[in-house]
Amino acid sequence: MRTTALVVAVLAFGCGKKGDDKQASEGTPSVKEPVPTAPANQEKGPPPKEEYKGKNRLVNLYIGADGKTQTVDVWVRRGFKWGPVKLAENVEFGKVSAWFGVPSSMSPVVLPVGAKADDKELSGMVYGRPDEVVTGVLTTYRGQANVVSLYDVSKEMTQAVKPPSAGKGTIILDAGQLQSYEAALTEKYGGRSFNVGDGTGECRPQRDPKMADLALGGTASYELELPPGKAKVTLHKWPAPADGRCKAAAVYELEVEAIADKAQRVFIYTPDSGKSLATLVTTVNE
Fold this sequence. Notes:
The protein has two domains: 50-154, Sandwich (Immunoglobulin-like), CATH 2.60.40; 162-286, Immunoglobulin-like (Sandwich), CATH 2.60.40. Helices cover 10% and strands 33% of the residues. It has helices at 2-14, 20-26, 182-189, and strands spanning 52-60, 72-76, 85-91, 100-103, 108-112, 123-124, 133-141, 144-153, 169-174, 194-197, 222-226, 229-237, 252-258, 263-269, 278-283. A four-stranded mixed beta sheet has the order 4-1-7-8, with no helix packed on it. Strands 3-2-5-6 form a four-stranded antiparallel beta sheet, with no helix packed on it. It is globular and about 65 Å long.
């Protein structure tokens, strides 16, 4: 009797209209909130003025593989927060751009003039911290465009320019661009590195006595500290005997003008892949 009652109870529990189980399994559908997205073609805006940090500029001494010079722009590309921004434009060969800051968390790139921000860059560019002043020099290195960073003002970088002694002017000769044209320069000037003279057969002393035996060329600049006014600088073939480094005939001459309490960089470069030399003068941090 107990067995019969148990079977009836089980059958009763399993009874119901066809489709009841399906309705129960479907229940109320779960609805997810849509993820907000920006319109497909909406561009992010530029950073506000307060986001631009540091003080940077670009010197254009770049010659392409075809031997031609090129005018360039400097951009930062779009980031997570801001859209692309052109920082410097129409920087011609042998010229220097205006100073510019760099938006936080964005890195500048050098592009051919007129290119769009997403086009292939010629080179990336290191930029300074908010309290630094940096001059980037666009040159050719091993066949590729490359920006060398020169620190005008920095608390951490030991190669940063030191202020001149009171009443004196600093002249920093830089011939780094020449290292890519050694063959042509050797044929005409005897090489790409030089001893630095004063036009009387004597060599001009480096400001730092520890650098006295170094010539101008490659990554080695040549720093002079002079009284205010114009001064003659002569370049002589290197290497040469120690007792006659600047007595031989000069292969190139230039005139510099020291300014009291200011530092200047004088770039000695070739505009035509080693056939001739030219100069570009920039004032440090001005």
